[in-house]
């Protein structure tokens, strides 16, 4: 999922896993003859919850335009510094499985797309309030 992965990346999804890797490498480099490194590596990494609203509010506060990211996919993409053109949104809609009957109407596609992006963010560990999922 190319465009959606860009959205995840802009919001910091996966950062906790990346940040966890360097300390593990540093532990392996340090001599520790009495403790094996295997238990630390075997511990499962829980899916970290990303506070999407807080991140987006922070971005919105420092953005030059007043963007309504809570209802507009165009504004959400702009806020994240992504291409919000019709072609890009149409590609994202296809990537996320937008029904064909909505793809022909840009307004319906945009509404579906915003809800679907919020839903997918929640499925990937994002803390999304219920009012943004309805």
TrEMBL record:
Signal sequence, start to end: none
Biased composition (Low complexity): 21-44
Region Disordered, annotated ranges: 14-44
InterPro entries: DUF3597 (IPR022016)
Domain DUF3597: start-end pairs: 3-129
Name of this protein: DUF3597 domain-containing protein
Organism of this sequence: Chlorobium phaeobacteroides (strain BS1)
């Amino acid at each position: 999922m190319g465009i959606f992965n860009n959205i995840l990346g802009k919001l910091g999804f996966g950062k906790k896993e990346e940040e966890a890797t360097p300390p593990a490498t540093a532990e392996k480099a340090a001599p520790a003859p009495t403790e094996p490194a295997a238990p630390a590596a075997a511990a499962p990494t829980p899916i970290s919850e990303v506070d999407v609203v807080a991140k987006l509010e922070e971005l919105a506060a420092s953005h030059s335009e007043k963007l309504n990211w809570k209802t507009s996919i165009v504004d959400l993409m702009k806020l994240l510094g992504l291409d919000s053109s019709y072609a890009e949104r149409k590609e994202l809609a296809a990537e996320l499985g937008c029904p064909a009957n909505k793809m022909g109407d840009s307004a319906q596609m945009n509404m579906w797309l915003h809800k679907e992006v919020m839903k997918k963010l929640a499925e990937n560990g994002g803390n999304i309030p219920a009012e943004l999922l309805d």
